[in-house]
Amino acid sequence: MEKKVINPWQWQDERSYVQAVETTNVQGTLYVSGQTAIDDQGISSNANMKTQLILAIQNLEKVINDAGYLCENIVRLNVYTTSSEELFNHFDIFQEWISKHNIKQASTLFEVKSLFESLKVELEATVVK
Predict the structure, then answer these.
(1) Could you report the per-residue pLDDT of 43-93, keeping only the tens digit for each?
(2) From CA 4, how far away is CA 2, in angstroms rounded?
(3) pTM of this prediction?
């Protein structure tokens, strides 16, 4: 698999995403449903945004790894949140995770009225190999 990042500008670099990603010679594509702060028994978290973001990231990694893919090959990552303000207070956690895995992804952030039950953040990804 080969990836090519398309970034006509540099301002997005500080926001931990790229404008576009082209992939060629792909052996597989994994479409990951939105991952949230739900525990192994299917119980939704009532915790704060920081705690929920960390668990959502962990759950996303688990699905990707269990499928035999790598986080570094995420090419699309959408973030849904019930509060952009709360999320941005902990955005450094998200950015550190992106940097740790050297992820170069196209990304869109959506503020939504609600998510399932008590959830505050959801991460939806497309991964290639």
Answers:
(1) 999 999 999 999 999 999 999 999 999 999 999 999 999 999 999 999 999
(2) 7
(3) 0.92
User: Hey, which residues does 32 pair with through a beta bridge?
Assistant: 125
3-state secondary structure at position 94? helix
Determine phi and psi for 110, rounding to 5 degrees: -120, 130
pLDDT for residue 127 = 98
Question: Amino acid identity of 3?
Answer: K
Q: Concatenate the DSSP letters of all residues of 32-62 into one string.
A: EEEE-SB-TTSPBP-S-HHHHHHHHHHHHHH
Q: Report DSSP state, residue 129.
A: -
CB 79 within 8 A of CB 122: yes
> What are 32's two structure tokens?
């990951």
Nearest to 75 by CA among 9, 20, 16, 1: 20
Q: What is the pLDDT of residues 3-25, one digit of tens each?
A: 888 888 888 888 888 888 889 99
Q: Classify strands 121-128 and 74-81 as parallel, antiparallel or unpaired.
A: antiparallel
State the burial class of residue 78 (Cβ atoms within 10 Å of its Cβ: 0-12, 13-18, 19+).
Answer: middle
